[in-house]
Amino acid sequence: MGDSYKRSDDLQLQYGIRLDGNHFSATPTFNPDLETVFGERNDRTPNHVYFTPRIGFSWSYGTAPQVAGFAGAVRGPRAVVRGGIGLFQNTPNTTLISGAIDNTGLASALQQVLCAGQATPTPDWSGYTSDPSVIPTQCTDGSVFASTVPNVTFFAKDYAAPRSLRSNLNWSGPLLNNLFTGNIEATYSRNMNQSGIVDLNFNPVVQFTLPDESHRPVFVQTTSIVPATGTIASRDARVSPLFSRVTELRSDLQSDSRQLRFGLSPSTFNSNYSWGLSYVYSNLRERVRGFTNTAGNPLDVEWGRSSFDSRHQIQYNLGYNFFDAVRVNWFGNFRSGTPYTPIVSGDINGDGYANDRAFVYNPSTTADPALAAAMQSLLNSASGNARDCLVRQLGSLASRNGCQGPWTSTATMSLSFNPLKFRMPQRATLSLQIGNPLGAADLLLHGNDKLRGWGQFSFPDPTLLAVRGFDPQTQRYKYDVNQRFGSTLPALTAVRAPVTVTAMMRFDLGPTRERQALTQQLDRGRTLKGNKAPEPMLKAIYGSGGIPNPLATILRQADTLGLTGPQADSIATMNRRYVISLDSIWSPVAKYLAALPDKYDKDDAYAHYQRAREASVDLLIKLVPQIKSLLTSEQRRKLPSFVSSYLDTRYLASIRSGTAGASNGPMMFPGGGFFVGGGDRGPGGGGQVIIIRN
User: Fold this and answer.
1) Is the pLDDT assigned to residue 413 strictly greater than 70?
2) Average pLDDT score, the chain
3) What 8-state DSSP symbol labels residue 83?
């Protein structure tokens, strides 16, 4: 529910409130043991009603350098400032409660068997294939390395869906004497009720520390670690032996998002080429708990850089019209890398989660010669970003998101074919969309075995160390070093952006827009209620040639454009000849249309209109070079895109017979003319948040 209040011609306020709600029809089965041990119920579901208020404003100031587009139009403002602030609320996904329903800890729920070390049955893969009934359902013994207790997942009492308090401020207007259109936007978002987990069955009592890893705490005894493999049985780190993990889903985390965007594009219409450029700076920080990533106690909470924080983005779009036959548009962006954390493959602190940051061993001080040699080999061969990250952290536990991936570039390309040049009906539109053309170039130039990763997303390998054993006497793990740490090679990446080519044929069905407008006008007083349009009215409607007269607009705005005496005289003379010529074209047509009987030949009526329209457009096409030669570049920049488009011969040729095939939802005029989107459209934003738009 919303409202708007116009304080003045320049200032408008918009405000409102939104209501969201959800209700899950199913609930997890109640487990009384969970309430007995932890005082929590697992049969809760996050059913809530949310109210979110919002307010925004739009303020315009000054007078635009561009003249008014047509008679009666208001000249636009110098620039517009928009902004707003509001609460934005998510609603829970329908699958959110599936984990709580499946993991109640009851005998009827999902069960698990975890076996490690000597408790692990010897696998017989061929036997399992021939007879599934022999697949083990229990460990070989009941030692600490065997676990058959279930997991539990439930919602905290105050769990709520994520919400955010967002605000933005935007300025847009012409720059450098209307040579460019600029856009500056600042956005801030405080994201609240962010999801996180806490394992209530985790016991944070430190059993021993790892002396070689800055005394990293371990929460199980050395006897719960398999020496040959380093695999951990986490029973020692459990509060209750009745359960394995007891995962409480909480919504007590937060994040902050800041973004600043600068956009630039040409302000004048040009059918030959178009472009747009923008730069986006982002800063995203989040509050996380150690169950996601830890070097100490998983219960600790810290602020840090988000894993999705790509600081810099450069977005661009390019368009060019080749020979007035093929329009090629290229949309692309360059994006700085996202951060990542050097990690250990597996669980080494005994909390039951593979969430441990790696210790970055210094080859010059590491006692294990094999480990030192492997680390030195990695430092010699790693990519620049990965190597720099490791060098900065030698001899210490890796910091969260202390490494950063490389820059990446992605793009899409589209080709649109002029139907008139390819002898297709004007109402037919043929286009090709190419997804990831950079990937296609990479494949073409380098082959499938030597891809460079062009057009691909960057997923650096974060695994630095892999556990290969444990020495209980010295309380040290034995590690292998991943020589592919930080690698983004496509051959080592499971997810790739494919190269896609999509062909689309669009065909306007039914009468053209111009024919519909003409028929509706002529049917009034004949087959429809109303009065027939007399000849003077038809001449007034269609006497402009079916398109606006740019010469008339230029003359009306002579003072604003700063026309000299010779310029004004030349354009006035040209306009008079143009109007007289139009009159000679449309007078007989208007007379013919006015005299039509109640039952008339609609095809013949439209044929008269179309021949006159084509003659009118041809007349303007001949005048365009003379008009443009009379105006200076500064004067032409003061013409709005709507007028500039009718001083472009390529555009005029495309609408000579009508606007069939147009797909931008144009604003129609009585004669069939319409507004044209020009080069003043800025490039797409970097995921910016727009609160209120006028």
Assistant:
1) yes
2) 88
3) E
